[in-house]
From TrEMBL:
Lineage top rank: taxon: Bacteria
Record-linked CDD domains: ABC_Mj1267_LivG_branched
Domain ABC transporter: 14-260
Organism: Fodinisporobacter ferrooxydans
Name of protein: ABC transporter ATP-binding protein
The keyword Zinc is annotated on this UniProt entry: no
Gene Ontology molecular-function annotations: ATP binding
Length: 267
């Protein structure tokens, strides 16, 4: 324990140090630092193009950082393959839903369990579809996760579910890998008001059950409901941090959002 840490302070789950991702001349992520503590619902906010999704792509191994460290589960995971990062305990959902549209909802969620095994997703789909369906443990886990997120139509092809429900299927798929940290990239995008209310309840329930969450979200009403800590990005840099009320009243943040609507209807 460091001398500054209080005896009962929550453990650090994730520490991002001086993280960079440059695409040619574009510094999409330009030296950010942040910490996610156990039990947090941390949120990354910022105007369009500020680097939030790139940051999540770095954390989940989709991109290799240009520089910097991502410390998770006792080591630097920067540059590891996505499947290895999932095995270490980080699962995610995507801004643009990435389900297999022709597979059933159940099959899509079962794929999440198989990120723990040795067979890759493509191998699973192409060579082992039948075997996969015989994997009772994975099926039971998937059904449990689907029940948890409130999806009943598990034998339906994923493409036939409304968009908002497809997002919940992605969350179920992430949950079956039993993550320590769940990354949600704009989980409310495309959801109607009723679906968003259910999503807020789900995020709170997951968090109460002990899951640490880091999300990107433009819907500030949702953020205000769930976030324990907010980090604000602009032009690849962190420009503010703290509780959500504080950061939304921060003149630097207001300036960064000028010309964009901050969707925020809380008093
Ligand atoms: N693969 C890529 N190649 C080149 N430039 C990229 C790539 N991915 C992102 N960028 C650029 O990096 C910057 C940050 O983009 P990013 O998608 O991370 O922002 P964001 O904050 O998630 O935006 P939004 O809120 O609109 O989703 C943008 O200028 C974007 O055009």
């Amino acid at each position: 324990m460091s001398t500054q840490e209080k005896p009962n302070a929550p453990n650090t789950v994730l520490e991002v140090k001086n993280l960079h991702k440059h695409f040619g001349g574009v510094k999409a992520v330009n030296g950010i630092d942040f910490v996610v503590k156990e039990g947090d619902v941390a949120v990354l906010i910022g105007p369009n193009g500020s680097g939030k999704t790139t940051a999540i792509n770095l954390l989940s191994g989709i991109y290799t950082p240009t520089d910097g460290e991502i410390v998770f589960a006792g080591g630097n995971i920067a540059g590891l393959k996505p499947s290895d990062i999932t095995k270490k305990g980080i699962a995610r959902t995507f801004q643009n839903i990435r389900l297999f549209p022709e597979l059933t909802v159940l099959e899509n969620v079962m794929i999440g369990s198989h990120t723990k095994g040795s067979v890759g997703i493509i191998g699973t789909l192409v060579g082992r579809r039948k075997g996969l369906m015989e994997d009772r443990t994975a099926a039971n886990k998937a059904l449990e996760a689907l029940r948890f997120v409130g999806i009943e139509r598990h034998q339906e092809q994923a493409k036939n579910l409304p968009y908002g429900q497809q997002r919940l299927v992605e969350i179920a798929r992430a949950l079956v890998s039993e993550p320590k940290l769940l990354l949600l990239d704009e989980p409310a995008a495309g959801m109607n008001a009723e679906e968003t209310v259910k999503l807020v309840k789900l995020i709170k329930k997951l968090n109460q059950m002990g899951l640490t969450i880091l999300l990107i979200e433009h819907d500030m009403s949702l953020v205000a409901e769930v976030a324990t800590r907010a980090y604000v990005m602009d032009f690849g840099r962190k420009i503010s941090e703290g509780d959500i009320q504080k950061v939304l009243n921060d003149p630097i943040v207001i300036q960064a959002y000028l010309g964009e609507e901050i969707e925020y209807d809380y008093a």
